[in-house]
Amino acid sequence: MDKIALTAGTLYVIVLLRAGGTFALGWLTGAGARRSRFAGRISSAKFLRAERAIQRWGAPVVAVSFLTFGFQTVANFLAGSMRMPLPRYLPALFLGGAAWALIYATVGLGLFEVLGRLFAERTALGVSAAAVLLLAVCGVVVYRRRRATPPSGGTVPEES
């Protein structure tokens, strides 16, 4: 239990610093954009409505973003750039960060222990599992890249 508490505490500090830093970077970027040539676009009625909605309703989105993959940084950056008030942002950061740290401390440590035992007791099985995992990740990357590129027509128009 001490290992989980120490890991969760360490991860909590890391996520607070990382997400809080991303929020601050977003805040500074938004402030800079408001003073730049984009100020006219940012002051449109549509943008101001979106900014007010994020300021009011963005806190639950920030908190839930910690339970997703790849959306956490975007949510924190947007919360900062759209000037979400700190009294709304900080509780979402503290709750979402705590959930993230606890999940990774328990599930993450459990996974590392299982993998450690697997490699120690049955090395061949551990190497095989790692190879299958690596091949699966490579397959997903290749599949996504192929889907993202538009199919070529096969012919190139000739120049005359």
Biggest pleated-sheet summary: none
Q: Order of helices and strands, N to C? A: HHHHHH
**Mean pLDDT across residues:** 85
What structural class do helix, strand and pairing data support?
mainly alpha
**Number of helices, counting only DSSP H or I runs of 4 residues or more:** 6
Gyration radius from CA atoms, angstroms: 22 Å
Range of strand content: under 5%
* Number of strand elements: 0
Shape: flat
Query: Percent helix among the residues?
Result: over 70%
State the end-to-end distance: 75 Å
Low-confidence stretches: none
Write the SSE topology.
Layout: H1 2-34, H2 39-42, H3 45-65, H4 72-81, H5 86-121, H6 123-148
Helix pairs in contact: 1-4, 1-5, 3-4, 3-5, 5-6
Structure, described:
The protein is mainly alpha-helical. 81% of the residues lie in helices and 0% in strands. It has six helices and no strands. It has helices at residues 2-34, 39-42, 45-65, 72-81, 86-121, 123-148. Helix 1 crosses helix 5 (86-121), helix 3 packs parallel to helix 5 (86-121) and helix 5 (86-121) crosses helix 6 (123-148).
